[in-house]
């Protein structure tokens, strides 16, 4: 649990009292009864706030295995709702596979493209460099829907209609502004002497990139990979438009469609189970890679 | 000689980026402009130039004005709430301590969820059948998505839940960027905490506020998933956003990609103008 603590500790340690923060003297951390009494309302208030953010998640997880009328889990606790989900149309395994396929392909493509692209933008001068970089960032300015309508037509033309590869290509493109930008600043943060020394020692530029720079920009790559995975795993709009075959739907689409299937009666239990399966990898990755997750936000904020 | 080799290598490494950006961004962008001035039904494809018929149809669409007004209303509501809450949470957990790190992580966890997953979660949470607040709904006689205003506020709550942590982090980064001695100076000049906040923190936070406002306004103007999943545009078509209109014109019934492309182009131009105005406003205030 160390979200942005690296940066905050210096600020708090500098003896500054942040505006609006509760009165609290950094130097004197004596635990007194009066101090505890003074801090208790703060703990209660902030604890309640944290609970508001956590409660919906916890509730969904609990509700998905608890008995509920109108679901496949009527009496007693158990995994009836997950069984419904497993049997839904092409089956959850199919949808999990589709989602995993799209996500991993997107992550792989994003990593490769932004690794080479970031290197090119950080270390080389070539004609059209600035135009290409600005064009890449301009992807951010254009609404999702504005691009998906023509992409639907284009992918049909080249035989990628209704294809998971097509979805992964589109999702990779949407990841490029963030990932190219982040990889560029990651490479720029590495001292030039490092790869120059490698080149002098007889490494080719690719050798220097692979053996010397790759380890140096690894944190950047982890952040890029994490963000592209989360974006691809969770994306709803692109598959909604580009996929119309139930066999090829991704998990978010399948869980969303599941609601309207049984004669208009919504199976809330199965929906809860679907949300749990969708959320689980994201939350696990968040907890494991929190530092990288937060750094991704910060690099955008600092330079954006 | 050396420079030529440099340029060649640079282009070599940038080629994958260039291919993706051109094939999946630049060409589609040109195509959407062409589509907006062509008769282009979903099933038969390009039927030739017809400008400005698509734009006339787009503006005359019976939900066009409603969706623009609703989207703007939602954008103002979401932006104000998210920025105020994001800043509030950031100030609350600004000092580093074990407890605050725990709080930050809790506020941030929902942002790891997809917007679609979060919307599905709240779809069940708000339903009159499966909601944990069912007893409350029964005894007070209200529903979360039953009336236009309730649907708007319920959806906004979902968005605040999902994004507040994200804006908190951006605000924290901004707050870290303010040098500590500025606060020292304000304190030694006898400024109250309230004065310090309005006269020192807020002005120095302006770049962060500009960034977060632009991000939040852009995101909210393009809202789709939350309304598509939670309200399906209802009740009584009161919660249709502009992007939902594009989707429904293109793929639900009307099947007219030309008109959808025309609305998309209008949205694109509007977005560029709105963002330019915002950045200008933040810059001119500065000088």
TrEMBL record, chain A:
Subcellular location: Cell membrane
Biased amino acid composition, Polar residues: 1-10
Domain of life: Bacteria
Annotated keywords: Cell membrane, Membrane, Transmembrane, Transmembrane helix, Transport
CDD domains named among the record's database cross-references: TM_PBP2
Main location: membrane
Lineage summary: Bacteria, Bacillati, Actinomycetota, Actinomycetes, Micromonosporales
ABC transmembrane type-1 domain: residues covered: 96-289
Topology in the lipid bilayer: Multi-pass membrane protein
PROSITE patterns: ABC_TM1
Family label: Belongs to the binding-protein-dependent transport system permease family.
The name this protein goes by in its record: ABC transporter permease
Membrane-crossing segments per the record: 42-62, 95-119, 131-154, 160-182, 221-243, 268-289
Disordered: annotated span: 1-26
Pfam families linked to this entry: BPD_transp_1
